[in-house]
Amino acid sequence: MNQNMIRKLQKLQKEMQETQERLQMTEFTGQASGVRVVMLGSHQVVDIKVDPELLEDIEMLQDAVLAAINNAVAVVDKTTADEMGRFTAGMPGMGF
Fold it and tell me: How many CB atoms lie within 10 A of CB 24?
């Protein structure tokens, strides 16, 4: 491999690492039926807001919390795949 190619790969690796670190600290929101969940890109839940009306129906509240968390995870995963996918575009077998 020539030096120019090595430098390009090192730059790409650095950009990928910076993107991963930024995504880990980014807040993502998931929502479902009166519940809002805020989750970091690392999948750590940092906040939950619940519509007070849901407090009257515990089963509905539980279902809404689960759905909101699952929605937040899906948002994190899709955003991460989209962001990291730009580094692997055109490179077969290198998808995230």
Answer: 14
Could you state, in order of their start, the residue ranges of all structural domains in the chain? 3-87
pLDDT tens track for 52-83: 999 999 999 999 999 999 999 999 999 999 99
Least confident of 1-5, 48-52, 91-95: 91-95
Contacts within 8 Å (CB) and 24+ apart, 73-81: 73/30, 73/39, 73/43, 74/30, 75/28, 75/29, 75/30, 76/23, 76/28, 76/39, 76/41, 76/43, 79/23, 79/26, 79/28, 79/41, 80/23, 80/41
Of residues 6, 5, 70, the one with CA closest to residue 43: 70
Look up residue 21 and give its two tokens: 């670190």
Size of the chain, expressed as the number of residues it contains: 96
- Hey, what CATH class is 3-87 in? alpha beta
Average pLDDT over residues 13-18: 93
